[in-house]
Amino acid sequence: MTSGPDDRHDDAGVPDRTGDGRGADDERGAPDMEGSDIELLRIWRSNHLGPAIECRIEAALMSDPRGREALGGTVPAQRLERNRLAIMGLATAPRRGRMERLLVRLGVSDSAARLATATPALRAAWLISTVLALLFALATASSSTASGLERVVVYLTIAPLVPLAGVALAFGSAVDPVHETTVATPIDRTRLLLIRTMTILITSIAILMIGAVLLAAPAVAAVAWLLPALVVTAGSIALSPRLGPQRAATVVAAAWILIVLLLGGLSGDSAAAFQPALQVVWLVLATLAAVLVDRQRRHSRYFEA
Amino acid sequence: MAPVAIEVKDVSRTFGPHRALEDVSLLIGGGLTAVVGPNGSGKTTLLRLLATTERADRGSVRVSGHDTSNPSGRLAVRRVLGYLTQSESLPLRMTVHQYVDYVAVLKEIEPRPTRLAEVARCIETVGLGDRAHDRIRDLSGGMRRRVGLAQALLGDPALLVLDEPDAALDPETRRLMLAELATRSRDATVVVATHHTGDIGEWCDRVIVLSSGRPRFVGAPGRLRELARGRVWRSDEPDPTAWHCWRDSPRTWRCLGPAAPGAAEVEPTLDDGYLTAIWSPDGPGGPLS
Hints:
The structure holds 2 protein chains of 2 kinds.
Chain A: H1 8-12, H2 35-45, H3 51-62, H4 65-72, H5 77-92, H6 98-105, H7 110-118, H8 120-142, H9 148-158, H10 161-169, H11 179-183, H12 189-214, H13 219-223, H14 226-243, H15 245-267, H16 276-299
Chain B: E1 6-15, E2 18-28, E3 31-36, H1 43-50, E4 58-63, E5 66-67, H2 71-79, E6 81-84, H3 96-106, H4 112-125, H5 141-153, E7 159-163, H6 171-184, E8 189-193, H7 197-203, E9 206-211, E10 214-219, H8 221-226, E11 232-235, E12 244-247, E13 253-256, E14 264-265, H9 270-279
Parallel strand pairs in B: 3-8, 3-9, 6-7, 7-8
Antiparallel strand pairs in B: 1-2, 1-4, 4-5, 9-10, 11-13, 11-14, 12-13
Helix pairs in contact in B: 3-4, 3-5, 4-5
């Protein structure tokens, strides 16, 4: 990887930036320089500045031919050029988007914020899962044939699958135009999948909460799908290294529906899967799946779709 | 970055009934290597194997000793890799800068000032500095190809694998791009799939001619040209004894094959050498070199 603008001391080998043996007070390198530039050079040579200020001073000095000449004798040209590019890169880079700025302010790392907001596939996956969530919420709420309990059960069964669909869509060649390019990079794919998953989960959950309100569901029912959503999503991620994201999501979704039907059939209560006792089970399963994902990540960062 | 050595050993890859590569063995060192061949000859599959986005059914691919059949080997290769896919479908809503920056994040170039400097440098290198903040959908096909090239150049990779980077480029831009790749190939291993055989002699150190999933020639461009010596002649009409004849002027035909005594032999070109490698019945199933 390339070096940053703050590596000037490493490159020079010693922190003394004069390099060629000239002392800090020696101004011979700049016989025709303006007073302000000489002052800049003197400050730059004082060796007590942080890398950021040093780079800015170097850039300012390099904007003038005499400044470049003065610096050229003391700093390797390659490093100066790299620092100039670093500053130009910062100066010409577009401003971060609102969401990216917000995430960075909340403490999310720069790269994670970029991946969460700029991933091309994420837009399609987010859009699809959002539309699905909205349509589903509206359809369930407006259904005239089902009873109140049936509508809530259907809602609770399907709701966890909405973020799951979004996650599956967010990491596949079908919706990611740069899938092959992504695969050829060294990025930790588990981290990438988790970042995409979190983005999808947060947006889907918010929308599904609105759906629950539309449904006029009891307060408990409005959140009873949250743990199952975590279970199916984490389970899908855990299975993804073996099955691939789409197949893993399909298997987990089928298993989830089967479990709800089985529990309902066996107990005679169609909402059995969402009772408090089962919520504990979902919590345990979600934790186990999260531990499994974490173990996979520790043992191998080479998750490949 | 120092060049990497690539060793492809007995590699086969099939897609359903289609055998894309069959028992391919190659050694590729530093410098600029061109992979040429007809459509469906296995070029893209070979490049995908080198770029670790494809796996061989049989055989092994090693890059600097790293076996790409295992995860740690693939990761090691990806750390030094710049890859341009054959039909890189770009996110059209993103700007050039956004997209290249996104790939820079995927390539784990950090911290941010360094990443942005690298992004700016690569966009400048491909001549898109003044279009950096344009949306990709507003660019021409050739410019989009250059966007793909910019992301491949990120991080100054020791291994550049480029699948038809010259597709949709005008001749001037193509020459500029080849000059850039030739310069980089002094310190890196650059493997380029192309259909422009005419460019090979001027820029490439090595040529691999693939046909039906097998290498038919591996060697220097000069040797490829020599392959056709004594096998190219001109005639006023198509010669039935030739492997193939095509018009090279309104009145004459250029023929390739075992030249009959008295045939008007001509100086072979690289295209002739390439066609000889493809059509020659010599050494069926194996390289001619």
